[in-house]
Design goal:
Order of helices and strands: HEEHEEHEHEHE
Strand order of the largest sheet: 2-1-5-6-7
Number of helices: 5
Helix content: 25-40%
Oligomer: single chain
Number of strands: 7
Structural class: alpha/beta
Radius of gyration: 15 Å
Largest sheet: 5 strands, mixed
Shape: globular
Strand content: 15-25%
Bound molecules: zinc ion
Distance between the termini: 28 Å
Length: 141
């Protein structure tokens, strides 16, 4: 038996969480962790009470779907709803956060980001994290 590392464990949970996503264009999962403990989770989904992409189709603008709130943002929102302090916590996610989510993560006090995969348009996120000294680890490119 090989026991998973903490990184493998949290990234595996991100994968499980992503399966609850409601936009089939991209299933994304995120987990916020401090001191080896999960504080919050999030996946891509429509605003509460609104129909899902998987039921009514995507809301396409340009070449991407704009209906969903992203996994990383939803993980922050879940912590806010439950009154969980996430300052100086770290984020694990299935892919490098988009620029909008990256800005939210910076302001929320996330101090480290570990992504399972890179994202084709992640240059702005990488530059931002570098500028504010948030380490970004990408496990496979
Ligand atoms: Zn969609
Ligand atoms: Zn995002």
């Amino acid at each position: 038996m090989t026991r998973p590392t903490l990184e493998e464990y949290f990234l595996g949970i991100c994968d499980s969480v992503s399966k609850r996503g409601t936009c089939d264009r991209k299933l994304v999962g995120a987990v916020i962790v401090r001191d080896k403990m999960i504080l919050s989770t999030g996946y891509n989904g429509s605003p509460r009470g609104m129909p899902h992409c998987s039921d009514v189709g995507c809301e396409i603008e340009g070449d991407h779907c704009i209906r969903t709130t992203h996994a990383e943002a939803n993980a922050l929102i879940q912590a806010a709803r439950h009154g969980i302090k996430i300052d100086k916590a770290e984020l694990f996610c299935t892919m490098v956060p988009c620029y909008s989510c990256a800005k939210l993560l910076v302001n929320a006090g996330i101090c480290k980001v570990t992504a399972k995969e890179d994202y084709h348009a992640s240059e702005k996120t990488k530059k931002l994290f570098k500028s504010v000294f948030i380490p970004l680890k990408i496990c496979k490119s």
